[in-house]
Design a protein that fits this description.
Largest sheet: 6 strands, parallel
Structural class: alpha/beta
Low-confidence stretches: none
Shape: globular
Distance between the termini: 35 Å
Order of helices and strands: EHEHEHEHEHE
Helix content: 25-40%
Oligomer: single chain
Strand content: 15-25%
Strand order of the largest sheet: 3-2-1-4-5-6
């Protein structure tokens, strides 16, 4: 089985949740990170033993050791970063909310289909008892 190599964009709380979760999955590893040039990003990469840490998102997308990107970034960045990742033939997992408008969501889905990549949505509340 081929290992799944994950790139994480962002260095906040939810990025750490994803990094910790991935570390428990056989055949999956966080191989790269984008901290957008912040000191917090450098500390995040060190804390999670991520060998490739980048200042620019494009560097993360250009990394051949990344199969899927998890977007743990501010909401207004979800759509443009998803579209860019799909164009780079990376699968994408987006933190909630998926995007800000219906048009953004449609563009994200369309680009992922066109590029032949999977678009995943990290929404756990739909399984909470009050929503079920």
């Amino acid at each position: 089985m081929k290992d799944i190599r994950v790139g994480i964009a962002g260095s906040g709380f939810i990025a750490g949740v994803h990094a910790d979760a991935i570390s428990t999955i056989p055949h999956a590893q966080v191989s790269a990170h984008c901290g957008f040039g912040s000191d917090r990003g450098k500390a995040f990469a060190k804390q999670h033993n991520i060998k490739n840490s980048y200042d620019e998102y494009k560097q993360l997308l250009d990394d051949p050791e990344v199969d899927v990107v998890i977007l743990c970034v501010p909401n207004h960045m979800h759509a443009p970063m998803t579209i860019e990742a799909a164009k780079s033939h990376k699968h994408v997992i987006v933190e909630k909310p998926l995007c800000l408008t219906l048009a953004e969501g449609q563009a994200m889905i369309q680009q992922c289909k066109k590029s032949g990549v999977i678009l995943g949505y990290a929404e756990e509340l739909c399984f909470a008892p009050k929503y079920v």
